[in-house]
From TrEMBL:
It catalyses: Release of an N-terminal amino acid, Xaa-|-Yaa- from a peptide, amide or arylamide. Xaa is preferably Ala, but may be most amino acids including Pro (slow action). When a terminal hydrophobic residue is followed by a prolyl residue, the two may be released as an intact Xaa-Pro dipeptide. Its cofactor is Zn(2+). The gene is pepN. CDD domains: M1_APN. Keywords: Aminopeptidase, Hydrolase, Metal-binding, Metalloprotease, Protease, Zinc. Residues 435-531 form the Peptidase M1 alanyl aminopeptidase Ig-like fold domain. Residues 216-430 form the Peptidase M1 membrane alanine aminopeptidase domain. NCBIfam families: pepN_proteo (TIGR02414). The keyword Zinc applies. This is Aminopeptidase N. The keyword Metal-binding applies. Its EC number is 3.4.11.2. InterPro entries: Aminopeptidase_N-like_N (IPR045357), Aminopeptidase_N-like_N_sf (IPR042097), PepN_Ig-like_sf (IPR038438), Peptidase_M1 (IPR001930), Peptidase_M1_dom (IPR014782), Peptidase_M1_pepN (IPR012779), Peptidase_M1_pepN_C (IPR024601), Peptidase_M1_pepN_C_sf (IPR037144). GO terms for molecular function: aminopeptidase activity.
Length: 855
């Protein structure tokens, strides 16, 4: 049942071109396919032909026009070698599929009366019999027959008439990039002229009524197209670019050639209904999917083990884009916070896997933070190691050498080796070995003889703990960006990149007149855990003085974390140092409000549980919550005289703009309002909620209220205003689940799941409610196991309809080995109950099995 990278074999045949015809009907769509095949050079002589196919009703099968009588097996169709010519031939199939019953949202399905497809990774085999693997690429001609007014597929439109439309995609592509949409949709249109003068018609297709919420996505698309030309020299290659918004979608969005399909929550936005975070995410995801046109589509993956080839690189590119559009420091801080919260958590638990996995049961379970976010970190490290100029050259070579191909990580690394002459075999371990390296640092200072300069030495030791299936780890190449500060806070050595390759290594800094304060891992130059015993005073010093904005933030974060860990484990009391340092930063109006807002944010309860378990302590969820809230109270108390003035100073009477400047102000304002709410019982937040003229401010105020157990009236008002709006109501469900008091969360979530607005078939709603529950650390981890039980009950229910979404949400259980024996027993019992469910999907079965195996 496991598929192995080591077993890769090229396909037996070449698919020269293909014609598809869809006669759409909700319960019986008829798909005819003509595949123009020939034996590949490698597989000359007679060879069986294997086609993938699942849940298809085969109506007819013809080889060069001749009917053949063959019965498919549950996963496909094998044509025996003696039937096949040793020359080009045409295979025609006709199948019936049932889009209405497709609740898995993979293949062709229906959402609110609209036909929609999702083929990555292996959904095309649920549409027709096909070599459904990314290294089989071909040119598609598609005909769609339906009475629906809008009929879309990949490539360029070639002809249409009443009840039909034809599309041709001139670019060879694998089946996972196929897409089809049919519905009663309206378009928001614009156009873009590429650098060589090609005029591209742009359209975002939405339900009537949503047209007014497309402007931001369109603007983001145009900026993405321009940016990819300017920064990577990549031009768009079709006459049209279409985006469709759909409410029922398993993931964020999909880069189908010329026809991107988006979860509607990542397209639709206006000031009233979307927060600044929504706007930023839309900008990033629009860019991400657009950038895939080159990194993913023009150059695709040879097999699914190479998923990071397109995802890591494309995430890296979208991060660069967002940094250019907004602030690089703020973007980096946000990205690292996400990496630590999701990927470090994954890497430290039973689901840890290499950026390029070696085996899988269900590939959909590997669209993970490790493949995406850590994959992007590997690109960032490569760029740091080779430098910007060599990176640009290597990318040019990658695009010219592999255009039109299905490539591998080896191909990717080879372009860097060829451009720089570097040997990247050690670097490659980052792709094959799972786990987060721990980097220990010690330092030495040798005072010079009278009149002579001193020498400062930094010594590093790297160690990566074992992960499932990988006991022994090898030393990695770690780029460590370091700068040195002098005793009064000026930078005495600018950033330099130390290249660590051994288990243990020292670096000397000569010619110093006084002992420096080191600023290590600037910009988070490698995805490692930095373990360094430094004093609270030193962290406060860096928080006040570091010239690297990321490390300045990092000093504040680590100071807060050490303070809270000490509170929870009976260590020294660091509260006064922390509160004073943070208050000084908050009051410093010369600093970007967005930066101050991020530094103000305390580590989450889950982050603290992770920090405790890294240090060998058992996290107590209730105690973590109390310590964290006590720290907020302390900070609020210390700032009480300043808060109203600071908040008022951040207000603006300009109309809402979703730009970085406005978002930063609103973000700091919301952080301060949350503190104020802890002092005034909610008076200021109620006022702010009533006065809010945009969703960001409304959600900020509502969050502050719910966090102190208030906000009932505001919740009701919110629901009354937004009940018709699915995407906005997801926020209503999510906030309640995530912010309920620990002893009420489980009951509340059970009620939300019984609410008439709850819809098991809509992944966003499920994620809002149950993702909300698992984000409620103390509520989910309630000592009697009720949180675990409730989640398992609903995962089992969802699995019967939508295995992929059930499997994703099940990762809420991945942290179980951190906790005390009683909680561990409760969680593993739920995993066992899931595993014992009759008819359990491959998706959820693999996830529960991997999590359980850690015991
Ligand atoms: N390639 C898409 C993206 O990163 C993700 C689609 C994943 N879908 C899935 N069913 N695994 O933008
Ligand atoms: Zn992607």
């Amino acid at each position: 049942r496991s598929i192995w990278l080591a077993d890769y074999q090229p396909y037996s045949h070449v698919l020269d071109k293909a014609e598809l015809c869809f006669r759409l009907a909700p319960k019986g769509t008829r798909v005819s396919a003509r595949l123009h095949l020939r034996p590949s050079a490698a597989a000359r002589g007679r060879h069986v032909l294997r086609l993938d196919g699942e849940a298809l009703r085969l109506v007819s099968l013809r080889l060069d026009g001749q009917l053949i009588d063959l019965t498919p097996d549950p996963t496909g169709l094998t044509l025996p070698a003696d039937l096949l010519p040793d020359a080009p031939f045409v295979l025609e199939t006709e199948v019936l599929i049932d889009p209405v019953s497709n609740t898995a949202l993979e293949g062709l399905y229906m959402s609110n009366g609209m036909y929609c497809s999702q083929c990555e990774a292996q959904g095309f085999r649920k549409i027709t019999f096909w070599p459904d693997r990314p290294d089989v690429m071909t040119r598609y001609t598609v005909r769609i027959e339906s009475d629906l007014p809008v009929l879309l597929s990949n490539g360029n439109p070639t002809a249409s008439g009443p009840g039909w439309a034809e599309w041709h995609d001139p670019w060879p592509k694998p089946s996972y990039l196929f897409a089809l949409v049919a519905g009663d949709l309206v378009a928001c249109r614009d156009s873009f002229t590429t650098m060589s003068g090609r005029k591209v018609d742009l359209a975002i297709w939405v339900r009537a009524g949503d047209e007014s919420r497309c402007a931001w996505a369109m603007d983001s698309l145009i900026r993405s197209m321009k940016w990819d030309e300017e920064v990577y020299g990549r031009e768009y290659d079709l006459d049209v670019f279409n985006i469709v918004a759909v409410d029922d979608f398993n993931m964020g969005a999909m880069e189908n050639k010329g026809l991107n399909i988006f979860n509607s929550k990542f397209v639709l936005a206006d000031a009233e209904s979307a927060t600044d975070d929504d706007f930023a995410r839309i900008e990033a995801i629009i860019a991400h999917e657009y950038f895939h046109n080159w990194t993913g589509n023009r150059i695709t993956c040879r097999d699914w083990f190479q998923l990071c080839l397109k995802e890591g690189l494309t995430v890296f590119r979208d991060q660069q884009f967002s940094g250019d559009m907004r602030s690089h420091a703020v973007k980096r801080i946000e990205d690292v916070a996400l990496l630590r919260a999701r990927q470090f958590r994954e890497d430290q638990g039973p689901l840890a896997h290499p950026v390029r996995p070696e085996s899988f049961v269900e590939i959909n379970n590997f669209y993970t933070a490790t493949v995406y976010e850590k994959g992007a970190e590997l690109i960032a490290m490569l760029k740091t190691l080779v430098g910007d100029a060599a990176y640009a050259k290597a990318l040019d070579l990658y695009f010219s050498r592999h255009d039109g191909e299905a490539a591998t990580i080896e191909d990717w690394l080879k372009v860097f080796e060829d451009v720089t002459g570097r040997d990247l075999s050690q670097f490659k371990r980052w792709y094959s070995e799972a786990g987060t390296p721990r980097l220990e640092v010690s330092e030495a200072w040798e005072v010079g003889e009278a009149g002579e300069a001193g020498v400062y030495t930094l010594s590093f030791t790297q160690h990566t703990p074992p992960t499932p299936g990988q006991k022994q780890k090898n030393p990695r190449v770690i780029p460590i960006a370091v700068g040195l500060l002098g005793p009064n806070g000026d930078e005495i050595r600018p950033t330099e990149v130390l290249e660590m390759t051994e288990v243990q290594q020292s670096f000397r800094f000569e010619g110093l007149t006084a002992r420096p304060v080191p600023s290590i891992l600037r910009g988070f130059s490698a995805p490692v855990l930095l373990a360094r015993d430094s004093s609270a005073a030193e962290r406060a010093f860096l928080l006040a003085h570091d010239t690297d904005l990321f490390n300045r933030y990092e000093a504040g974060r680590s100071l807060a974390r050490e303070m809270l860990v000490a509170q929870l484990t009976g260590g020294a009391d660091l509260r006064a140092t922390w509160a004073a340092a943070l208050a000084a930063l908050i009051r410093d109006e010369s600093l970007d409000p967005a930066f101050r807002a991020l530094t103000l944010r305390l580590p989450s309860e889950d982050d603290l549980a992770q920090a405790l378990s890294e240090r060998g302590h058992l996290p107590d969820p209730e105690a973590i919550r109390s310590a964290r809230r006590a720290a907020q109270d302390l900070l609020a108390g210390g700032l009480s005289a300043d808060l109203p003035g600071l908040i008022a100073g951040l207000a603006s009477d300009r109309p809402f703009l979703p730009d970085a400047e406005g978002a930063g102000r609103r973000s700091l304002s919301a952080g301060l309002l949350a503190l104020q709410t802890r002092l005034d019982g909610g008076a200021a937040a109620r006022q702010a909620f009533d006065a809010a003229d945009n969703m960001t401010s409304a959600i900020g105020a509502l969050t502050a209220l719910l966090d102190i157990g208030a906000g009932g009236a505001e919740l009701a008002a919110f629901a009354a205003r937004w009940q018709q709006d699915r995407n906005v109501m997801d926020k209503w469900f999510m906030l309640q689940a995530a912010l309920a008091a620990p002893d009420q969360a489980v009951e509340l979530v059970a009620e939300l799941a019984a609410h008439p607005g709850f819809d098991l078939k809509n992944p966003n709603r499920f994620r809002a409610v149950f993702g909300g529950l698992s984000a409620n650390h103390a509520g989910f981890h309630r000592a009697d196991g009720a949180g675990y039980r409730l989640l398992a009950d609903w995962l089992i229910r969802l699995d019967a309809l939508n295995p992929q979404s059930a499997a994703r949400v099940s990762a809420a259980f991945e942290t179980w080995p951190r906790y005390d024996p009683a909680r561990r027993a409760l969680i593993t019992a739920e995993l066992d109950r899931i595993l014992a469910t009759p008819g359990l999907s491959r998706d959820l079965g693999e996830m529960a099995g991997r999590m359980r195996a850690a015991g």
